[in-house]
Amino acid sequence: MALYIVLMLLVVALIGYALSPNGRAVFFKRFAAGAQIRGAFIAVLALVLIALGILIMNGEAAWSVTIPLTMIIGGCCCLLVVLLRNRIAAPQRATHPKVVLAVGAHPDDLEIACGGTLARLSDEGHEIHAIVMSDGREGGNRGVRPDEARNGARTMGIAHIDVYSLTDTRLEDHNMEMVEIVEAKINEINPEVIFTHSIHDQHQDHQAVHYAVLRAARKHPSILCFESPSVTAEFNPAVFIDITDYMNVKVKAVEDHRDQAGKRYLRCDRLKGMANFRGAQGKVELAEGFEIVRLKDSIAGLK
């Protein structure tokens, strides 16, 4: 009886983990069709939980042992097969992990532009930090968007994210503040590479963040510029990072921004279409493209 109770508590803990943001991120990173696998995992554990409940309440009758045990063993075997068949192999861990800083203007900018890259770098053992300069109040609900940015960061595996409330659509009015924010973060974490917006971008906030980062990181040897939906035809990536195994993570991180649901540039087909295009340029299946301001060291296949 005591064993059944312990097993029941263990199953409840596993279900709770699968429902948590961290557990959700693991399923999307480590399994193809992560949403479906997560649902199957929870369903099978719920079945096991019911079987354990039957054992606890009717432990004396022979039928009440045979049927629940069959449910438990059968469910666990099916779950094991599904997990093994859909498992995505973990990437090779970096021999010398680096510190990475990503700077965006609004909640969802990083997920859309370089979500697959950040997720991959995190999986490889690099330490990822992020800055979001505004709470996106002009484009949505300022009460929920910062938390959505934190949820997206968790999905991507970002170690720490700072979300500020500088004036959305008027970030150029906060140039010195942004420079000071980025300088302080650089001094704090000493990143080996910095990701930020491109100068070839129609959005005034994206341009403002680009200039602020370049000014704050004027002595930094490695800066890459990512591709937002608002980039111009002049955006010309020279570096392509393979995100074939991280497309589902990128999509899920974007979906974490529920306040923005329905916007065309957030649609899964748009995200995958761009990744297909950049992948063709980079000679891989799916990729994210980056312009180089300057690049010193190798990271995630960058040379």
UniProtKB/TrEMBL annotation:
It comes from the Bacteria. The keyword RNA-binding does not apply. Gene3D superfamilies: LmbE-like. Pfam families: PIG-L. InterPro entries: GlcNAc_PI_deacetylase-related, LmbE-like_dom_sf. One of its GO terms (biological process) is glycoside metabolic process. The chain crosses the membrane at residues 6-27, 39-57, 63-84. One of its GO terms (molecular function) is hydrolase activity, acting on carbon-nitrogen (but not peptide) bonds, in linear amides. This is Putative LmbE-like protein. Keywords: Membrane, Transmembrane, Transmembrane helix, Zinc. It comes from Corynebacterium mustelae.
